[in-house]
Design a protein that fits this description.
globular, nine-stranded antiparallel β-sheet, 9 strands
């Protein structure tokens, strides 16, 4: 679990890794609307998300080296990045 480093936004990122190398990542800014992504093999500690729900107009990458979530909006071509902290460190933030 990762929390947004910027306390003015309520970003939560949930990561589940599986023995076969696959990873599911879910992020939310309000705990009501969530975006779920899948990566069959995280390489170089970079999660390159494939959207699970094709109606979602976003894809995302997560860099486990820097704990940075980057969201790409497929409808507008824009993106934004968010620094996160591991939950245990977020409690101290």
């Amino acid at each position: 679990v990762y929390k947004g480093a910027d306390s003015s936004i309520d970003l939560n990122v949930y990561v589940q890794r599986y023995k076969n190398g696959g990873t599911i990542l879910i992020y939310t800014f309000d705990s009501k609307t969530m975006v779920a992504l899948w990566d069959s093999k995280v390489e170089n500690n970079i999660f390159e998300g494939t959207i699970i729900n094709p109606a979602t107009l976003e894809v995302a990458n997560f860099d486990f080296n820097t704990n940075t979530l980057t969201i790409y909006h497929t409808d507008t071509g824009t993106s934004e990045s968010y620094q996160t902290l591991l939950f245990e460190k977020a409690l101290l933030h």
